[in-house]
Amino acid sequence: MHAHGRIALTLILNGAPCTASVAPSDTLLDLLRDQLHLTGTKKGCDMGACGACTVLVDGRRITSCLTLALAHDGAAVTTIEGIGTPDEPHPLQAAFIRHDALQCGYCTPGQIMSGIAVIAENPSSRDAIREAMSGNLCRGGAHPNIIDAIAEVAGL
Amino acid sequence: MNGFTYARAATLAEAIGGTFIAGGTDLLQLWKIGAATPAALVDITSLPLAGITTSANGVLIGAVARLADVARHPAVPKLVTDAIMASASGQIRNMATVGGNLLQRTRCPYFRSADLPCNKRAPNSGCGAIAGQNRAAALFGASLACVASHPSDLAVALAALDAEIDIHGATGPRRLAIADFYRLPGDAPERDTMLAPGELITGIFIPTPTGRTIYLKIRDRASFEFAVLSVAVSLTVEAGIIIRARIVAGSVAPMPWRLHAVEAALIGRAPDAASFTAAAAVAAEGAQPLPHNNFKITLLRRAVARALGEAA
Ligand SMILES: Cc1cc2nc3c(=O)[nH]c(=O)nc-3n(C[C@H](O)[C@H](O)[C@H](O)COP(=O)(O)OP(=O)(O)OC[C@H]3O[C@@H](n4cnc5c(N)ncnc54)[C@H](O)[C@@H]3O)c2cc1C
Ligand code: SF4
Ligand code: FES
Questions:
Q1: Topology of domain A3-81, per CATH?
Q2: Which residues sit with their C-beta closer than 6 Å to ligand 3?
Q3: DSSP letter for each residue of A90-129
Q4: What is the pLDDT of residue B279?
């Protein structure tokens, strides 16, 4: 059956069940930002090319701008809001602060979500981290510090 | 951006005949700029076509297997893994499927701007690239109607391994050699492949490679970029003599482009520097460059020479 109009969808969002009703053409990014008001996930290019919208879906990093929300019915979605708090930051968030791994901060949520997944992928070297992080652009040029922060948490 | 309906297919029968979305990474880009206007999307990622199975003579990759999962599978030939790992980003590779990768559309900037003339996107509107920006255009196989090149890295590796594409349509299954899968633009550039509307790719069969392989991708930056051009090499050497060669160039034609002259120059020769230099010299035979892509003639010869040297 082809569904017209809005369709109900369930996510495990940052660990808690969440239901929403979306248009078939809503991207996961638009659902997160516009409907669920989780604006930590950023929209840079809306074309898969910058990485600012990176979130984890069932533990895998994806660019949420280039995927339909309905493709993820039932999935576990983790955004920057779900990984740490100001009092208890995620180890990678703390490392970003230590290494001054940002300039304006717009790409930072995407960098951190991507970095968390890269660390889980067990990179073998600093160069492997650089290559794995090439999908996250930083117009402020903080890349060396970003790699430093990820390498430290990865134990490299 | 037009609206569309969405349904998830659970069986082949439910899917066939529809307009498919897999990873969505190319379709949604095209939809956002108005170059694709689907009315009813059928999501095929729940079909039982994500598996990777091995047999005595090769490996069968399900069409909706994600690029990242294919690249890390131990039974997948290294040439394919290398081509995938040189494609897109970690995020995109987690979403993109192998079937969708083969069917991604050209990166020609006129095709990807809904306001500009492009025969491939809007038949009979003219080709903006021929007299305009044609750095990404084809050296081989183009027509007066369209000079676009195909951007897939995976397809180039598959062509060097004589892979086959499993297709399922209203009349049942069929299998096409990758060499017969893509079509040249001729006077109908809107059709990239031999796939009929509503036909589904179900899998890709890759025969076990017999020799040494290499994938060389030349980009404008070191990572996360489409190819300026690429070269896939598969060489089989027996008793010191090259007995089989597949030399395929990417992003220089509307399909992975076999360099038959290079292959012919290698067969029967020893895999040494003299053979490679002589073979690379004929890499651009038959090329028809345009003003902005003629530098690729030299680049292609050098890339073939380097790839052969690294494969040996
Ligand atoms: C930022 C970015 C960078 C990229 N860089 C590269 C690169 O360097 N190298 C490279 O090779 N690619 C690159 N790509 C392209 C990417 O690899 C493709 O977009 C992706 O592989 C398409 O797969 P998909 O599953 O997302 O396809 P979709 O977008 O879902 O589908 C694409 C098309 O194929 C059709 N389709 C999909 N599956 C099937 C099937 N099984 N049977 C029949 N029809 C089907 C769909 O209907 C649609 O027309 C890049 C993409 C992005 C966004
Ligand atoms: S080369 Fe092909 S895709 Fe590019 S503008 Fe011309 S017709 Fe369109
Ligand atoms: S906003 Fe998604 S990759 Fe740029």
A1: Ubiquitin-like (UB roll) (3.10.20)
A2: A 43-46, 48-53, 63, 65
A3: -HHHHHHHHTT--SSSTTHHHHHHHHHHHHHT---SHHHH
A4: 98
CB A142 within 8 A of CB B97: no
Of all residues in chain B, the one with the smallest CA distance to A132 is B90
Per-domain boundaries in chain A:
3-81, 91-154
- Of B73, B103, B74, B71, the residue nearest B89 (C-alpha): B71
Which residues of chain A have a pLDDT value below 50? Answer: none
Q: Return all residues near A49 (Cβ < 8 A) that are at least 6 apart.
A: A137
Tokens of B267: 């067969």
Residue B286 has pLDDT above 80, yes or no: yes
pLDDT of residue A4: 62
Q: Hey, which of A47, A64, A65 would you mutate to test ligand 1's pocket, going by the most ligand atoms within 8 Å of its Cβ?
A: A47
pLDDT recorded at residue B312: 81
CATH number of A91-154: 1.10.150.120
Minimal-distance CA residue to ligand 1 atom 27: B100
**Amino acid letter at A108?**
T
Which CATH class for the B212-311 domain?
A: alpha beta
Query: pTM higher than 0.95, yes or no?
Result: yes
Q: What is the pLDDT of residue B71?
A: 98
